[in-house]
Design goal:
The chain has a 6-stranded mixed sheet. The termini are far apart. The protein is built from 6 helices and 6 strands. By secondary structure, the protein is of the alpha/beta class. It has one domain: Rossmann fold.
Length: about 140
C-alpha cells in the first residue's frame, strides 16, 4: 500500500480557525489548516463541510456572513473531499459498534479511512489513540 501524508480535519478545527472568540484555539487551528493547505495534505468530507456551515452561520457569535462562508467553503472544496455513499454508512455503523462511538464520530472515522489517511485531527476523540489504523491527534494538546 502506498503511504501518503493526507490528514483528515474535523469540523471543530475548521470552526476554531474562523471563530474570532476562540483565541488560543484559533491560532493553533489556523496554523494547522495553513500547513495542511500549503502541503496539500488536507482532507475533509461532505459531513465536515456541512457541520462547518451550520456552526459558523448559526452557533457562533457573531455568526459569519453567507458570502464569507461561501468563499471559505469554496476554498475548502479544493482539498480532498470524501463523498460518502451507502456502503460508507454501513461501514460507519460497524466502526460505531466496534469502538462504541457516536454515529457522527464513526462517520468521520469512516471518511478518514476511505481517504486512507494516517492522522485525524479532532478534539472529539482521545489524543494519541489509534482507531481503525488512524492516529487521533488533538491540535490543542501541547
Amino acid at each position: 500500500m502506498k503511504e501518503n501524508n493526507l490528514q483528515f480535519v474535523d469540523a471543530h478545527i475548521l470552526v476554531y480557525a474562523h471563530d474570532r472568540n476562540a483565541r488560543e484555539k484559533r491560532e493553533r487551528a489556523i496554523s494547522l489548516v495553513t500547513t495542511l493547505w500549503e502541503k496539500r495534505q488536507g482532507v475533509i468530507s461532505l459531513q465536515i463541510l456541512s457541520e462547518f456551515f451550520v456552526t459558523v452561520t448559526q452557533k457562533i457569535q457573531p455568526s459569519t456572513s453567507l458570502d464569507s462562508v461561501k468563499a471559505v467553503m469554496q476554498h475548502l472544496s479544493c482539498w480532498y473531499v470524501v463523498e460518502p455513499n451507502r456502503q460508507s454508512i454501513v461501514s460507519a455503523m460497524e466502526i460505531l459498534e466496534r469502538h462504541s462511538l457516536s454515529y457522527w464520530d464513526a462517520m468521520v472515522l469512516q471518511s478518514a479511512k476511505q481517504a486512507n489517511v494516517q492522522i485525524l485531527w479532532t478534539e472529539n476523540l482521545s489524543h494519541g489513540q489509534t482507531i481503525e489504523g488512524i492516529q487521533i491527534q488533538n491540535p490543542f494538546i501541547t
